[in-house]
Design a protein that fits this description.
single chain, about 300 residues, alpha+beta, Aminopeptidase, 2 domains, seven-stranded mixed sheet, 12 strands, globular, acyltransferase activity, transferring groups other than amino-acyl groups, Acyl_CoA_acyltransferase
């Protein structure tokens, strides 16, 4: 099957003609999803049936290397969630499942979806399959009357921060301390599971542009030249260095490779966890707003002079 999405086929089957703004937005989202899948060289569709759900859980095991009893989702639960109409989709490279994403509905009045877990095979990283999955999820959500998707990610993982904030146009809204408790998988190690809660407003113009392939661009050096100050830096040896930063915009660095640091120097990784929790968590709790993330591994936070 050619690289595309099941959403694109559904749109062609039912007719993609749009007679109001909502249907035009849905049609544009389907087009963006199809383009992202084609660019990544995958076909994305809903997963169903026990065999496919087993394949999805096996893929997640290869990505996270979960310990005994720590798999976040069972095949049986996935089967029930699929039957109830939640979002469970996979990306295929030929017959191989190379990525998967799972989300479930929030309370009806919220018109939102919580995207619980998404992962891509290490073999296919660098092809933007994760991006294609999220753009597919957005189109699926809009077709189901959902206007917002939320999820969490580790604020110390710079590539995920850039992906969420830059490539997708989502915005972190809350710092959650040790949100999942101990996980002890191959990526989190023994570190505490602090997370940032993301809100992805699906009709936001920045999100529309990002899903069409125009990511947000954030430049820490330009921000610093305009008066921003670092509240947390990296030392030459890679240690966290907090600093007083009384400015309307502040910069908060993260380690360049927290996953590697957890393996080679877990004590330093723990110091980074505490520093980012205190600085970034404190800024958000006081009303600060994360505006962007520089690819050099630095959050850009508007404080309004807190």
């Amino acid at each position: 099957m050619s690289a595309a999405t099941d959403l694109a086929e559904a749109a062609r089957h039912h007719g993609a003609a749009a007679d109001d703004s909502a249907s035009r937005a849905e049609a544009a989202a389907v087009v963006a999803a199809e383009a992202a899948a084609r660019s990544a060289g995958v076909y994305i569709r809903a997963l169903d049936g026990m065999a496919e759900l087993h394949r999805m859980c096996e893929l997640y095991e290869r990505i996270w290397r979960f310990g005994d009893g720590s798999m976040p989702l069972s095949v049986e639960l996935m089967r029930a969630m699929s039957k109830a109409g939640n979002y469970i989709a996979g990306a295929f490279d030929g017959d191989e499942l190379v990525g998967a994403c799972v989300g479930f509905f929030a309370p009806p009045a919220h018109r939102s979806l919580h995207s619980h877990i998404a992962g891509v095979s290490p073999r296919t990283r660098g092809r933007s399959i994760g991006f294609a999955l999220k753009v597919h999820q957005r189109a699926w959500a809009l077709r189901h009357g959902v206007t917002e998707i939320a999820w969490t990610y580790d604020p110390l993982v710079g590539r995920n921060a850039y992906f969420n904030i830059g490539k997708l146009g989502a915005r972190p809204v809350e710092y959650l301390t040790n949100f999942y408790g101990p996980m002890h998988d191959g990526l989190n190690g023994a570190d505490e599971t602090d997370r940032l809660l993301i809100e992805w407003r699906l009709d936001d113009p920045g999100v529309v542009a990002a899903c069409a392939g125009t990511p947000g661009r954030f430049d820490a050096a330009a921000e610093e030249a305009a008066g921003a100050r670092y509240a947390l830096r990296r030392s030459p040896s890679g240690e966290p260095l907090p600093a007083a930063a009384d400015a309307p915009t502040v910069l908060v660095a993260v380690p360049r490779d927290i996953e590697g640091l957890r393996a080679t120097d877990p004590a330093c990784a723990a110091r980074w966890r505490g520093a980012v929790r205190e600085v970034l968590g404190g800024l958000l709790a006081a009303g600060g707003r994360i505006r962007g993330f520089d690819r050099g591994d630095c959050y850009i936070v508007d404080t309004g002079g807190l």
